[in-house]
Amino acid sequence: MPHIDIVREARERLAAAWLQDRENREDAFTDLKFLAGDQWPAAVRQQREAQSRPCLTINRLPQFVHQVANSVRMNPPQIKAIPAGGAATEALAEIFSGLFRHIQYRSNATHVFAHAVYYAVACGIGHFRLATDYVDDNAFEQEILIKRIQHPLSVFWDPAAIEPSRADADYCLVSEMIGRKEFEARFPHAAPADFDTPADGSAESGLFWASRDAVRVCEYWVKRPVERAIARLARGETVDITEVDPAELPRLGIVATRKVRSHKVERWLLSGSEVLEGPNAWAGRTIPIFPVIGAETALETKTVRSGLIRAARDPQQLYNFWRSAAAEAIALAPRSPFLATPAMIAKFKGQWDTQNSVARPYLLYEPDPDAPGSRPMREPPPDVPTALTQESAIAADEMKATTGIYDAALWARSNEISGVAIRARENQGGNAALHYQDNLMATLHHLGKALIDLVPKIYDSERTLRIMREDDSQEPVRINAAVMGVDGKPMLLNDLSQGVYDVRVKIGPAYATRRSEAADAMLQFIRAVPQAAGIAGDLVAKTMDWPGADEIAARLKRTPPEVTGEAASPEVRAAQARQQALAEAELARAQSLAAKSGADAAKAEAVAQQAALDAAKAEAELKASGKAPAGPAAL
User: DSSP character for 87?
Assistant: First the structure.
């Protein structure tokens, strides 16, 4: 397509997208102004300031927006790949999931997602994008990054797209403001014409953000239809044969072929009158711009898109008005007057005239002889109408009601006393904003599918990737490495282009938070069941977040089962039983021998004692008869 036709096509599509979404954009712009503190109508502000009347802005809206948007920071999203068919395996799915985590880590994706959700809550829509870049200045390998889109209203979508993720859009335009000097440096041969100037030259439509000091250029992403040929091989594999040499087709063992209507994605960078870059082919089949939508209400002829601020604008204005009225009433109320006679203060009139502006420890007066016993007395000031403070409180409550976020969700003291009541009110506030999380999950599911499609095309060469595990540990993995298979034929190790994968999105606490919660739950369980400490002590230590916890867990895991009480395998238990039986038999034999030896010793001792008794008796009988026993000398 000629370049001039591309510019015309893009301008016409931009005008159609803007006109279809004009009311939503104008309301979104007002929402953002309210959030930034511009909450008074211009005419009312000018009138009050001309009359020197207070015009206060007590901005209570940011707390509601942060309450919803910051939940993404507390519960970072996780995208996980799961096998869905073909040659997909759990091992490759884990590599995909680890690579997704690495891409999110490298891109600081939690901040990117929170930024998009912030604007979805604030004005009804936020955006982020996918991009590719070289790993470093000395490499040819590329990597995938997730980047934020700063301004939520700089993206213009195909009016026919109705999915929350805009996955069904055929085109998308992203505008960017470039300073004129930068524009001339980047595109020295281009004319500095604003892209957002209406095609008919009129200024009525007035697309946002025209500037005299900058030039607005526009990225034009478009899907172009293509026809592909696919074939099923004898071994059951389906391959794309669109660009295969016809002479090679008979060698593939093709069983069946068919034509497929598909599309490719192109990117153009345009000014208001010419092509600056492009066409650049995008490797994936998805337009790499991703919206996060707030609330959408489909009417007969249009769809109304809004965020949390839209319904809270009127209560916020009322709150500002009543607070300003109360401040004005207090300021205009007369100072507490003194009642005194002229004679009492005549000599000290200077002190009394400045008593409201100069701090004095005392005021002097002279007794009036015409009013014996009297002195100057202060009169109470007039009361400020209580209706002003009551209306302010009502407006504050209406802001909570329109946003669905109450004091308990904002960690403010409320009427709830019990823990059950406080959690119920917190859940009520969370449920009121649950559709923001649901729409984010729909977009992240679309992002995951885009990554599944894009990863094999960007990470297509042999290289070593560092993937991240769920516990934030890193592991090197070799992909697309040529090795010899078991059949002796060459194959690719960890070929990410093989198989079909689906994605699963989970939004929940980060691993560190879940680890801390697990540690608390385990300690409570150990207190309830103390004997479990010997069985699961290493698991408890592993969840602790202090230096040396992993070493202690490793030592506990190496402790013998008989010490920890951990159940051994049947083979180990049988061997232990045999050893115990042998030990008991040996102990019984030793005890029997000891008993036998003890009996023999007792018998020998008894015989010796009897012999000693017999000898003593014989000697006594000889003495009695007068005969001396024969000694050695007689022999």
Answer: T
Residues 6+ apart with CB under 8 A from 628: 622
Give strand pairing partners of 479. 463
CA atoms within 13 A on the CB side of 250: 1
Sign of CA dihedral 351, 356, 362, 363: positive
Are the CB atoms for 518 and 543 separated by under 8 Å? yes
Rounded to whole angstroms, the Cα distance separating 555 from 552 reads 5
pLDDT, one tens digit per residue, over 229-276 is: 888 888 777 778 888 888 888 888 888 888 888 889 999 998 877 889
d(CA 316, CA 403): 12
Q: Which strand (E) or helix (H) includes residue 255?
A: strand 254-270
Rounded CA-CA distance 120/296 in Å is 11
Count Cβ atoms below 10 Å from residue 265 Cβ, excluding itself.
19
Structure confidence at residue 583 as a pLDDT band (50, 70, 90): low
Give the DSSP H or E segment for 139: none
Query: Tokens in use for 250?
Result: 């008979």
pTM of the model: 0.72
pLDDT at 635: 30
Burial of 137 (0-12, 13-18, 19+ CB in 10 A): exposed
421-463, pLDDT tens digit by residue?
555 555 555 577 788 888 999 999 999 999 999 999 998 888 8
